[in-house]
Amino acid sequence: WRVSSSFLFEPEDFEFETETEIDEKFDPASLLYDPLTNDIFSETPEEPINPLTITSERLDFISSNSIYKTCPTPISGFDRMWVAAVDAPIFDTIAGTFNNYGVEFCENVADVDYVRSPSSTTSTIEEIASAKAHRVFEATNLPTVADRTSFEISVSKAGSTIAPSNSAYFFDDLLTPEVDQICEVLKPFSLPDRVTRYKTVLCYYDGEIELFAYGECEVDMIFSNSNRAFISHSHACDYLSDMLSGVGFLDMEFKTWAKKKEEIGSEESSSSRSGSAAKRLASRVLKDGVVTSDGFLSLSKFIGGSNVDVSLLDECAKELSRFYENSRITKIVCGQQRIILASLVAKYLNVPLDIGGDNKEIGNILLVDEFLGTGGKEKELIRVVKGNGGDVIGAAFAVEEGKLQGRETLNLFSSDLVIKTLCVITSTTEGIIEVA
Hints:
The protein has helices spanning about 20-25, 30, 55-65, 90-100, 125-140, 180-185, 230-245, 255-275, 275-290, 310-325, 340-350, 375-385, 405-415; strands at about 50-55, 80-85, 105-110, 115, 145-155, 170, 195-205, 210-220, 290, 295-300, 330-335, 355, 365-370, 390-400, 420-425, 435. It is α/β, with parallel strands linked by helices.
C-alpha cells in the first residue's frame, strides 16, 4: 500500500502507555464488542429491530415543496433517473459505475443522518443503509442507493511482544473523526500486521425491490486509514451493479445508453440542419435578416417586429416540440416581449404557458424564445423560475447568434440545461450573414 493520509488531530494530543488508557479515551462502551460471541455481526438479532429516525434538511425541503426532477435529460441518452444518499467523497464512484448502465443521478442527498430510538444502543450497517434508502425514496419517489461503511480493528495476534491486546474496536460510521485518530494512536501498541477491516453495504430501494450488496477490505494496521474505504465501497458498487443488471431484477445492460445518446445527437444534428422548418428558417434569415450599421442583427421583417410570419413560427414550434416530446415538460415559460413561438410550442406539447415565470412552478419547465443572443435575459428568467420552485430542464430557440455566446452563458449557469436551436448564425462580418 502507498501510505498517504492526513489525521484530524495533533499526535501530541494523545499520549498513552497502555491500550487500557486508549479504551478509556475512546469510550469502550460504544466501541468494544466481544469477538468470541460476534454480537455485532449477528445475522439474527434476538431482540426486535428498533426503528431509526432519519434526519435531513434537504429531504425536509424536498418533501415540503413536492418538487423533484424525475426524468433523465433526453440528450444525455440515459433512460433512468435515480437519487443517492451516500457519503460525499464516494458519490463519484457510484455515479460513474451506474452511468455505464444508463442511470443518471439527479442528486446525492449527503446530509442524511439518523437517530436511534431511546431503547436501542446499536444498529447494524444494514439497518442504517436501509433506513436512509427508504426515507429518501419516500421524499423523492425515485429509486435510491444508500450506503454505510463500518470500521473494525481486530484483537492483537497471539504472540505479540509489543503490547498484548484483548480489545477489538468497532465503528458503524467511517466518517467519524476517531477512525483515523485511533489507528494512529494504536500503531505503537500493535504489530504492523494487526488486521483492520472496512465493510461497506449498499442498499438499493425502489418501493418494491430492496437489495443489499457488500464490499470488504482488510488492511494491516500500519497501512490503515479511512481512505481504504474507497476499496470496499468500489467492490460493493460493482457487486450491486452486477445484481441489478441480472435477469429478474432491472435487466440493465452495460453502455446501451451510449448508442442511444449517439442516435439522439445525430437526430438533433439532422433536424437542426435539414428539418423542413430549420431549412425554411435559415432561408428566411439569409433573405430578410439585416445587419445594422452598428453590427447588430435585425430579424424584424418576420420575427419580433410588426411583421410576424406566424406560419413559419408554427413550423418551428412543431419541430422544437418534437425534440422535447419525451421530456415530460409540464409548463412553458417565456419572457414578456416575445410570446408567439412559446405559445405555439405550448400548444403542441399540450401544456400551460407562463409569461414571465412569476407563478409557482412545479415540474419540468421548458424556456422558449424566438432569439438567443447574449443569454442574459434567459439567465434571469431561469433564476426567477428556480426561485419559484421550478426545474428548467431545457431552452428552445428559433434563431441563435453564435458570436454573442448565449449558449455558453446558459450552460455555465445551468450545466444540465438542454438547449435546442433551429438556426445558428455563425457570422455577420461586413454585413454578410452566414448560418450553420
